[in-house]
Every structure is written in structure tokens, then in C-alpha cells.
Write a structure and sequence with these properties.
Elements lengths: L10 E7 L8 E6 L2 E7 L1 E3 L9 E4 L2 H4 L5 E5 L5 H4 L2 H8 L3 E3 L1 H13 L8 E3 L6 E4 L2 E7 L8 E7 L2 E5 L17 H10 L3 E5 L12 H13 L6 E5 L4 H13 L3 E5 L1 H12 L12 H6 L5 E5 L9 H6 L12 E5 L7 H13 L3 E3 L14 H11 L3 E5 L3 H13 L4 E2 L6 E6 L4 E5 L4 E5 L2 E4 L3 H12 L1 E7 L2 E8 L7 H17 L9 H20 L4 E5 L7
Parallel strand pairs: 3-6, 6-7, 7-8, 12-13, 13-19, 14-16, 14-17, 15-16, 17-18, 19-20, 25-27
Antiparallel strand pairs: 1-2, 1-21, 2-3, 4-5, 5-23, 9-10, 10-11, 11-12, 21-22, 23-24, 25-26
Helix pairs in contact: 5-12, 6-7, 15-16
């Protein structure tokens, strides 16, 4: 590896996102002077960045080396693997590669961004499955996950083969798709696997994740138990197998389906365009659903994570055409994503106040994870027998635990890396070579900015401490506006005292300082801040507006 991190006669791995966190997956492989990207995802801010919804990995490292980037290979269509494509694919200027279902969703994103036709999108048919990209030979290996066409990548290089799992699980009854069998995975292991780059999300789960077939049976039993009641099921829109199950359950329990949520509408359309959900019932509209007897409708709704604008949240606060009342039932066929507990709790409390019965995966097997528990990880290790394990897709605690599990399962090398660590996989002993610049970007309004930049930092400070604006005027008391200070009834007295303090501080300036705008500005700022601290205990951001100076 050269000092500028160009891969020479070696195989390198670098995560720019998704290692040390769950979400925002961006992985790079370097070999013989070239790079290949695997996935280009995003994450949600979760309130960490005020006023921001979407957060991206900082791609500065690979943007500086875009001439050596051969393409972006996508494992599957979850947002934390494809969500950043509309924002960066055009600038990177390289082709995308995906299986048909994923490619269809990506194409729609590119069309919405006005990039369709400007970004090359290559569809890799399942029966083909393999293609070459410079020194990399890439083969899609279907694995079960909570979305259609989840895939691992088998990456052939001159220095050995990498099995990059993407998101995966083992499922003997997957409902949708045909995952690669144990025998096929053992055959890959027999041919030799240099490194396994592996999902860490559920490493602390001592049990297998469970089967979609088991969910089908539990969902049938649960919905059949609520005869005569209006039932709503909320699930991840992208889980096509779950939608297939719900369509079948609705038909077998004599209910008609009503779909609430744009993301559900989009996934159903894309799935049917790609050969899935062929026998999914024709959904009814909201008005028809409300007119039907309560026991004859099954509502599918977005919002199981407490998203305030999603269908379930709006139903819970009575701002949606669909209504739930006492005795109705909501099934949460999804897991709680960390960070969403408050939003979910709010929705559930609103539903509880209506007398709605709620069932989660704690009461019934109406959801299973799409990520592997420990037994599944151990099975994959034994089948592939990799020389090196590189845990990804997890917080640091998940990745370290998977490294410990790999060592216990006799994998010779277990490398704990995080975003920005360049890992040498071959030749020679594998390990972390050096850190490079990595970080986060945020979509702030219509502008992509550093997530730790001044605008967001200032917004966070204002949210915590408030702000005071002071407008100075010649021959008059300064105008003062306080925002977010906990003064309420004391505000007039605070403003009066602060005006006096500012005038007094400016009046104490002598000599050149008395006419120096910078000195006047600083005196007014400090006096205002001290006054705010005396009155409120807060240290607000203070902005001083100076009177315009006349030109010469």
C-alpha cells in the first residue's frame, strides 16, 4: 500500500460506514490499484442532529480516488444499504450493480432525483449471478433476510476469496426466494475462503433468529383469534415475505386488505413487477375499509417505529381516514430499532387510551429478525471455514463479541475494525494497517453538510441553552429578544436589566475602544450573557446586531 493508500499487490478492506454502528453501510475493497464499493447506505439522525433526518458516511476518501473506483455493488435494497445512492452516485460517476428487485427500487430513487439515465445501473439476473469488475470477480449468493433478494457476495481476487455476507440469516421456510443451501455453502468453504466479512447485529442472541414460516403460522393463529374485531398489522414495508404471509392470512381468515402507507404501496408495486406477491389480494380503499364489518378487514400500516408522519401514528392521534376504537387490535410485527423507543411508546400509549389491544413479538411469534443469532453464525463459520473473520454491521460491542465468538470457533484471525480503519486481508498476516479520514455528513434542508459542522453544533447549543439577540441603536436603548430562556413572567424585568447592563458596559469603554465596533460588540455580548446567566442559569448564544457605519 502506497502512502496515499493506493492498494498495490494486496487485498484491502475499508469500512466508511456501518462498522461501530448499525446502519449507513459503505464498504470498500482495494486490490491491484483499484477499489470496489459494496453498498451505499444512510441512517436516520434519531434526534442526534437537530433539524436533520438523513445522515450519510463521509465519502471524501473514495471521492479523492474516484478514478480508481470501478463500481458499486449492492447486496440488497434496505435503506441502510442503498439510501445514499441518489445523493452520491452521480458525483462518484461509476456503475451500479444489483439484482432485479433491488435495481428496480434504486431506479425509482434515481428517477426521483433526476439521475435516471445519468447513472449506469446494471441488473444482474439471478440465473447469471456473476460478473467481473477489474481484479474482482463477484458472485451473488442468495441468503435469507427480511427483504426480497438478500444476497451475500463471493468476491474472487488474485489473493484469495472474500465472503461478504451483507445482512442475512438462516431460514428453512423463507416464504420468498430460495436461499443458498448448506451443501452449497459447504462447497464454497471446500474451495477456500480467505476472509468472512460478517453481519454482527444479533450476535448476543443465543437462539436462532426464527423462520418466516413460523411467523406465518403464528400470524394465522393470532388474527383468527380476533374474530369480529378490526385488526391492523404494522411491519417493515420492505419485508416482502411478511406481506406475502399477510395476504394469505387475510384470504384464509375472510378479511379484505387495506394498505396505509406510501412505502408499502411502493414495495408491493415493485415486488409484483419483479414476480413476487403475484396472488396478493387487491387492496380496498380507506372508505370501503371503514364501511366493512370490523371482522372483515385487515389493515396493513407503516409506522411501527413510531414515525410521527407514518400511517399508524396518524391513526393513533385521529388525523387519518382510518380509525381504531376500543376493542380493535394492533399487531406490531416488527422489532424495536434502538433509539425509537420513545416514539413507539407514544403511539402505543395513544392506542391504549383508545382501548385498543396491542400484541408484540413478546406475546406471540409474529416477528422474527432478519439477522443471525449465535447458532447461525457458528454454523456459517463451520461451513465456510474462513482464515479471517472481519465483523461489520454492528456497534463496537457487537463486533467485539463476534470476534470473540470467531476465536472460540477456531477461526485463526479475528479483526476488530471500525469506520476508517484500513485492513489488510492478504498477502501475509491480516490486520489493521492505518486509519484514514472518515466521518458523517447530514442532509440539512437541501444541503449536505458535515454532521459535526458549526450549523448543527449551533442548533444544538441553542436547543439546550436558548438564544438572545441584541440590536444596538444610536441614541436609544438596545432592542433585546430572548428565545428559549425559561423566564416567562420575568421576561420584561430581564430585558430592562439587560438593556441597562449593555449600556453600562459600553459606557465603560475608553479611548479607541469606545469607537471600535469590535470592542463595542464584545462588551454588549458579554454583558447580555452575564445577565442571562444571572436570571436563568443558562448560557445562551448571544448575537449582537450593530448599527450600520456611514461611509467616508
Amino acid at each position: 500500500m502506497k502512502k496515499d493508500f493506493t492498494p498495490e499487490n494486496e487485498l484491502l478492506f475499508l469500512a466508511l460506514g456501518g462498522s461501530g454502528e448499525i446502519g449507513m453501510n459503505v464498504n470498500l475493497y482495494g486490490c491491484d490499484g483499484k477499489w470496489m464499493m459494496v453498498d451505499l447506505g444512510m441512517t436516520f439522525s434519531g434526534g442526534e442532529y437537530p433539524g436533520v433526518d438523513l445522515v450519510f458516511a463521509d465519502l471524501d476518501f473514495i471521492e479523492e480516488r474516484a478514478d480508481d473506483l470501478l463500481g458499486i455493488v449492492l447486496t440488497h435494497a434496505h435503506e441502510d444499504h442503498i439510501g445514499a445512492i441518489p445523493y452520491f452516485a452521480g458525483e462518484l460517476g461509476v456503475p451500479l450493480y444489483a439484482t432485479p428487485f433491488t435495481a428496480d427500487l434504486v431506479a425509482r430513487k434515481l428517477e426521483e432525483a433526476g439521475l435516471l439515465g445519468q447513472v449506469e445501473l446494471n441488473i444482474i439476473a439471478e440465473e447469471q449471478g456473476s460478473f467481473d469488475l477489474g481484479p474482482f470477480g463477484v458472485t451473488y449468493i442468495p441468503l435469507a433476510h427480511s427483504i426480497a433478494e438478500g444476497n451475500a457476495l463471493l468476491i474472487d481476487t488474485p489473493y484469495g476469496r472474500v465472503f461478504h455476507t451483507g445482512d442475512w440469516k438462516l431460514d428453512e421456510e423463507p416464504i420468498i426466494g430460495e436461499p443458498t443451501t448448506e451443501e452449497e455453502l459447504r462447497a464454497i468453504g471446500e474451495e477456500g475462503v480467505l476472509a468472512l466479512v460478517c453481519d454482527s447485529t444479533n450476535v448476543f442472541n443465543p437462539e436462532p433468529s426464527g423462520s418466516e414460516g413460523a411467523v406465518h403460522r403464528a400470524m394465522m393463529e393470532e388474527i383468527a383469534a380476533h374474530k369480529g374485531k378490526r385488526v391492523l398489522v404494522t411491519t417493515f414495508a420492505s419485508n416482502v415475505a411478511r406481506l406475502q404471509t399477510l395476504g394469505e392470512v387475510a384470504r384464509e381468515t375472510g378479511r379484505q386488505i387495506c394498505v396505509a402507507g406510501r412505502s408499502l404501496d411502493r414495495i408491493i408495486e415493485v415486488a409484483q413487477d419483479n414476480g413476487y406477491l403475484a396472488d396478493f389480494p387487491e387492496p380496498i380503499d380507506f372508505n370501503t375499509a371503514m364501511r366493512l364489518p370490523r371482522g372483515e378487514v385487515l389493515i396493513l400500516a407503516t409506522g411501527g417505529q413510531g414515525e410521527p408522519r407514518a400511517a399508524l401514528s396518524r391513526i393513533a392521534d385521529d388525523s387519518h381516514p382510518l380509525e381504531l376504537t376500543s376493542g380493535d387490535v394492533v399487531l406490531f410485527s416488527s422489532r424495536v430499532i434502538p433509539g425509537n423507543e420513545i416514539g413507539i411508546g407514544k403511539v402505543q400509549n395513544q392506542l391504549a387510551a383508545k382501548g385498543v389491544t396491542m400484541v408484540t413479538d413478546r406475546q406471540s411469534l409474529i416477528h422474527v429478525s432478519g439477522h443471525p443469532g449465535r447458532p447461525e453464525l457458528e454454523a456459517l463459520y463451520s461451513w465456510l471455514r474462513p482464515q479471517t473473520l472481519v465483523p461489520v454491521h454492528g456497534e463496537v460491542r457487537h463486533m467485539r463479541e463476534q470476534a470473540r465468538l470467531g476465536a472460540a470457533c477456531q477461526i485463526p484471525h479475528n479483526i476488530v475494525q471500525t469506520n476508517g480503519d484500513i485492513v489488510k486481508l492478504a498477502p501475509g498476516a491480516p490486520g489493521v494497517l492505518a486509519p484514514v479520514v472518515s466521518g458523517r455528513l447530514a442532509l440539512d434542508g437541501d444541503i449536505i453538510v458535515p454532521a459535526d459542522g458549526e450549523a448543527i453544533a449551533m442548533r444544538r447549543r441553542i436547543a439546550n441553552e436558548g438564544a438572545v439577540v441584541v440590536a444596538l441603536a444610536r441614541g436609544a436603548a438596545p432592542a433585546i429578544e430572548a428565545i428559549g430562556l425559561p423566564l416567562d413572567e420575568d421576561m420584561p424585568e430581564f430585558i430592562e436589566e439587560t438593556q441597562e447592563s449593555v449600556l453600562k458596559a459600553i459606557g465603560k469603554l475608553r479611548g479607541k475602544d469606545a469607537t471600535d465596533p469590535a470592542a463595542v460588540h464584545e462588551a454588549a455580548r458579554l454583558a447580555t450573557r452575564r445577565s442571562a446567566r444571572r436570571w436563568s442559569g443558562k448560557n445562551p448564544q448571544v448575537r449582537v446586531i450593530m448599527p450600520a457605519t456611514s461611509g467616508a
